[in-house]
Amino acid sequence: MGLLIHREIEKGCFLGIWEIMEDYETLFPAVYLNEADIIRLNGFKNMNRKVESLSVRALLQQMTHPKARIVYCELRKPYLADNSYNISISHSHRMTSILLGKNRLVGVDLEYMSHDIERIADKFLNEREVITLHPEKRKEHMYVHWCAKEALYKICDKVDINFQKNLTIKPFEPEQRGNIIGVVRNNLRNEEYQMRYVINDNYALVYCVK
Q1: What burial class does residue 104 get, using C-beta atoms within 10 Å of its C-beta: 0-12 exposed, 13-18 middle, 19+ buried?
Q2: What integer pLDDT is reported at residue 138 of this predicted model?
Q3: Region of 193 on the Ramachandran plot (φ > 0 left; ψ -120 to 50 alpha; else beta)
Q4: What is the mean pLDDT of the chain?
Q5: Please, what sign has the CA dihedral across residues 1, 86, 165, 178?
Q6: Per-residue pLDDT tens digits for 187-209
Q7: Is-contact 15 35, C-beta < 8 A?
Q8: Rounded to whole angstroms, how far apart are CA atoms 72 and 146?
Q9: How far apart, in whole angstroms, are the C-alpha atoms of residue 129 and residue 151?
């Protein structure tokens, strides 16, 4: 299937989503990789992980240019080699997502809602957050909280962040899409972030721009 979405969500900020229908043999020759990229790719033992990595490169090159490259810092935060955009990446099951920001910080998280997330809710939710009691919406509500916190974690450079202690999603009524507010409070930040979420085809997607 390949590219599903490539649109400008705010001025200079672009969201892309790729549906992974291709196999390794199809994707590998379709993307530009230098020697360092190939070494990193070969370091993945799991074939699904290799395909995910190639789908990220394929999506990025569709969104920017054919020789766009991603490099990673010590904290595993991705950067574009040419520094043309800030970038955030997420993939889950058969989907890959990239958010690009021209001179703006970005964070995106995409999750396939296959797990019983309520089992680990006490690991990432805090007493200020409210989860609906509606049985048909409860799982989705928790996944939006999780994705929102992952997106905040990424936009804050993955530094000094505990999901339960430092991140709070202000109460909201879960729908198929909407706006929410995420709060970051730690030794480096005391900030609120406007965030957008979408629930579709058993996936939860949350993104934010600063």
Answers
A1: middle
A2: 96
A3: beta
A4: 95
A5: negative
A6: 989 999 999 999 999 999 999 99
A7: no
A8: 23
A9: 17
Q: CA-based Rg of the chain, rounded to a whole angstrom?
A: 17
CA-closest candidate to residue 209, choices 111, 109, 99, 110: 99
* Count of CB atoms situated within 10 Å of the CB of 105: 16
Same fold, 2-103 and 109-209: yes
99 within 8 A of 108, measured Cβ to Cβ: yes
For 72, half-sphere exposure in the C-beta direction (CA atoms, 13 angstrom radius) is 11
| H or E element in which residue 183 lies | strand 177-185
Give CATH for domain 2-103.
Answer: 3.90.470.20
pLDDT average, residue stretch 31-54: 94
Amino acid type, 165: K
Tokens, residue 12: 């200079």
The structure tokens listed for 142 are 């928790």
**Tokens linked to 107:** 């964070």
Domain ranges of the chain: 2-103, 109-209
Q: What is the CATH number of domain 109-209?
A: 3.90.470
Cβ contacts of 18 within 8 Å, gap of 6 or more: 2, 3, 4, 55, 58, 59, 62, 95, 96, 97
pTM tops 0.90, yes or no = yes
